[in-house]
Design brief:
- The structure is a single chain.
- The chain is mainly alpha-helical.
- The chain has one domain: Arc Repressor Mutant, subunit A, CATH 1.10.10.
- The protein is built from eight helices and three strands.
- Helix 2 runs antiparallel to helix 6 and helix 3 packs across helix 6.
- It is elongated and about 60 Å long.
- 17% of the residues are buried.
- The N terminus is likely disordered.
């Protein structure tokens, strides 16, 4: 016997298996993306955090070290060590801020710019591996919808420190 209510139709369309569970689906996709992205970012000092510093310094121009830490939600002490490693790898430089000689601007090097291009290609391949079952139009729609949900979720429960989130994700 089947029910003709809209709710019953929705349940039937979603199914009752674990694959229909939003939490399960988000977790599986996140784990797959995290694994492929970690592989793509292998060798970058600081992994994803190092990539974020490099990408931000290239796309937005020089920023003060403290401002960059705040923008990315990285503890300032952690940021110091991360920048030390990125600088040793030749990807960024600390330069004196002309408007405040006590502050340092984080500036990408030419090697940093080239490395970022390579990392973006690798991350794109990672995304292709994760979203391989979707065509280009579906990927665009998925990204738009996911971004809308993420912005709303962030407004309801803002992330104040990305380091804590990364630690929580690694603990699960």
């Amino acid at each position: 016997m089947t029910s003709s209510t809209p709710e019953a139709g929705t349940r039937a369309a979603r199914g009752t298996s674990v694959e229909a569970d939003l939490g399960w689906a988000l977790g599986v996709v996140f784990r797959r993306y995290a694994k492929t992205a970690a592989e793509a970012l292998g060798g970058v000092p600081g992994g994803p955090r190092g990539y974020q510093v490099l990408a931000t310094s290239v796309s937005e121009g020089p920023k003060r070290q403290l401002d960059l830490a705040g923008q990315l939600g990285v503890d300032r002490t952690v940021m110091t060590y991360l920048l030390d490693d990125l600088e040793k790898a030749g990807l960024v430089q600390r330069q004196a801020d002309p408007s405040d000689r006590r502050a340092r601007l984080i500036v990408p090097t030419e090697q940093g710019r080239e490395t970022l291009c390579d990392l973006e290609r690798r991350l794109s391949a990672s995304e292709d591996a994760v979203m391989g079952s979707l065509d280009d139009g579906e990927r665009m729609i998925f990204r738009m919808l996911l971004q809308r949900i993420a912005v709303q979720a962030d407004q309801a429960d803002p992330l104040h420190n990305a380091c804590h989130l990364a630690d929580e994700a690694l603990d699960t």
